[in-house]
Amino acid sequence: MKISCKYAILKVGLMIVFLVSFAHAQVSDTITSKGRYRNYLKFHSLIRDTYIIPHWYKDGSRFWFAVGTPENTMVYEVDPEHNTKRPFFDQDRLRKSLTPWLDKEPENKGLPFSDFVFVEDDNAAEFFVEHKKFRLYLNDYKILKIDGKEEVRQPLAGIMSPDGQQSVIMKDHTIWLISHSGPKEQQLTTGGTDDYPWTVENGCWSKDGKRLLLKRSDGRKVHHLPVIDYSEPEESVTYTVYAKTGGAIEIPELYVLNIDSGNSITIKEGSGTPQYVFPVGWTQEGSEILFMRLDRLGKKLEFLATNPDTGAGRTILSEEAKTFVSGLNFLTGNWKRQVTLLKERPSFIWMSERDGWRHLYLYSMDGKLVRQLTSGNFPVTGVIRTNEKSGLIYFTANAEKEVYSTNVYRVGLNGKNGKRLTPAPGIHTYSQFSPSGKYFLDTHSSPDTAPAVELRTTDGKWLQQVHQADITKLQKIGFRAPEIFKAKAADGITDLYGIMYKPYDFDPSKKYPVVEMVYAGPFINIVPHRFGPTTSLSVQAQALAQLGYITVMMDTRGTVERSKAFQDAVYRNIGRYEIADRVAVFRQLGEKYSYMDMKRVGICGHSWGGYFAIRAMLMAPDLYKVGIASAPGELTEGAEINEPYMGLPEDNKEGYEWGTNTHHAANLKGKLLLIHGTSDINAPLSTTIRMIDALTKAGKRYDLILVPGKGHDIENEDYVNDAIRRYFEENLKNTEK
């Protein structure tokens, strides 16, 4: 369960928003169920233009966006001031103007290019067609062929300096300075290795561009995970840093580097202790460096400032909890949402669950609480924009009756004038604000409503629907909208939410085998409350349903975007309540829906989901008849994965004993398939080896697939997906009822 090269996280797919006709989508008579399954595994390729990228004019009054394919593009111009939308180019005139230069009429019906740039004070546009560069005058559609080499425009590499003249990048575990004028590259640090690398984050530059905030992680004393390459007769071994639960973890070091002199200052509070450190950046006036540090068990989070000349520091804010302040979601990237610095005043916005829900708090830079900005029985999910001139903060939260309905809100820095800005139901996933701050584009969808991109004022006034996704390919192979359901947890009190996928040709008079796609890690939600799959797990769920299953996903106690108490239910008890909640939910679903064959229930999961797929087969063997566990983790593995929720093994022996799957191997009754890549550095192969050893000693049969040379992301391998399909067909679907 280790992620990226360091932390275990379920690979989250691209954000998807799209439209579908739900009554009875068009279905091809020629496509087979197996073909539909394979199509659904490539679900994202069936959707086009799921969101738009606005290109604002220099004055910020209008924007254009492109949709379609590179060979057949449409470009639209939107004018928020006048609330208009129009095709930017007169396509017929453009194509006629291009024909003499190409000696033929451009192919396809749309624009023959997908990108262009304004020139001559926005009165002309330049673009490439068939590798030739043209300039189009927008007033009369006169075209000139001009010299120019077609190149893919790449963003400048690295983190840009304040003056835009240079940037820093990470290369070979060291930090390099890239100059955009003069000598191209300069190595700033030395000695970086796999287990002692240099890294850099956004916000690293001082205001004057002369100093950098750098981080180094010392993992030399941490366990080194061996990865064996079996592809040649003589095996080779490489090692990667992997902190085991209860073992040594990496020790961070923070430095301030003077670029000109090469001298550096060590930031003492951020260095030399087994902890997690997150460089935030510099104060507004540049007099101090800001960073956060989290203790090993995630119980104490501090926000600190340091003098860049001396390295002396001060604690601005300290947040503590009896359980955990932050867990794996924080360590894997959400730490960037924790604090929002204000630019025009010495203040910042802090997120905290101190009152039982995640809310926003305004602090001064001396650590004094100014006021709580949001309150109520709902979680804030993040700040998305600040407008200090108007004194308003824009943020997302799940504050409606629909528990997982994420909307855009605003509130004043005075804690007043709170307002919901996006009334459409569902998940509002992608908010893009105009440079002026007057308007924003809101991309939203829900499992059973049309997704759309809407233009609104920042006061919430609806102006127009700008765009909706093209789902023509999806409609052609058949589609049925999934259904969100609600049920009670094993405690009989707590509401849990899930999603159910049905075959495209679903018949309620039939009985269908049931497959649960499980993750259940306490740092993420996996039920997609927007339209379309959000993870590889939900892609697989939709695909399997096309083969004649009812597939189910659910978020049980311990997951995020609910109250702190909801998350804390599994504290020190990973593996104790998650399966019990599932058994309770399935009992309720079976009583309600006669088409669910509760004698044929299977489960499949990857990574943390692999751990829980095994756990379900061992702790609820009378419910789950078939299980597939891909790259399963264990409580013995990644320290940063398990310790915030379980504590240290020596302090929670009972919890670790109960939660370790190998201790319950004798409970297995059904069919279990284990799948693992031999080069996995996120969830080590040793977790599966120990599991099959325990099953062997218990006299239990199992099936095993090893994928040579593959890492953690084997859930995207065609061979693995085909194996999952076959295993359920042979052992669940085609068995006697």
Question: Can you describe this structure?
Answer:
With 737 residues, the chain is of the alpha+beta class. It is 16% helix and 34% strand. It is built from 12 helices and 42 strands. The protein has an 8-stranded mixed sheet with strand order 35-36-38-37-39-40-41-42, sandwiched between helices. A hairpin with a 2-residue loop joins strand 32 and strand 33 (449-457). Helix 1 (33-41) runs antiparallel to helix 5 (536-545). The radius of gyration is 28 Å and the shape is globular.
Tally of separate helices: 12
Strand-residue proportion = 25-35%
Mean pLDDT: 91
The largest β sheet comes out as: 8 strands, mixed
* Radius of gyration based on Cα positions: 28 Å
Strand neighbour order, sheet with most strands = 35-36-38-37-39-40-41-42
Distance between the termini: 36 Å
- Record field, number of beta strands: 42
Estimate percent helicity.
Answer: 10-25%
Class from helix and strand fractions: alpha+beta
| Uncertain residue segments | 1-29
The shape, in one word, is globular
What descriptive keywords fit this protein?
16% helix, alpha+beta, disordered N terminus, eight-stranded mixed β-sheet, 12 helices, single chain, four-stranded antiparallel β-sheet, 737 residues, globular
Topology at a glance:
Layout lengths: L32 H9 L13 E2 L6 E7 L2 E8 L4 E4 L3 H12 L14 E3 L4 E6 L2 E6 L5 E4 L12 E2 L5 E6 L2 E6 L5 E3 L10 E2 L11 E8 L5 E6 L6 E6 L9 E8 L5 E4 L7 E8 L6 E7 L4 E7 L6 E8 L7 H4 L7 E3 L5 E6 L6 E6 L4 E4 L7 E8 L4 E6 L9 E6 L6 E2 L6 E7 L5 E8 L2 E9 L4 E6 L4 H5 L6 E6 L6 E7 L10 E7 L17 H10 L4 E6 L8 H5 L9 H15 L3 E11 L1 H12 L4 E7 L8 H8 L6 H7 L11 E7 L7 H13 L5 E5 L10 H16 L4
Parallel strand pairs: 37-38, 37-39, 39-40, 40-41, 41-42
Antiparallel strand pairs: 1-2, 2-3, 3-4, 5-6, 6-7, 7-8, 9-10, 10-11, 11-12, 13-14, 14-17, 15-16, 17-18, 19-20, 20-21, 21-22, 23-24, 24-25, 25-26, 27-28, 28-29, 29-30, 31-32, 32-33, 33-34, 35-36, 36-38
Helix pairs in contact: 1-5
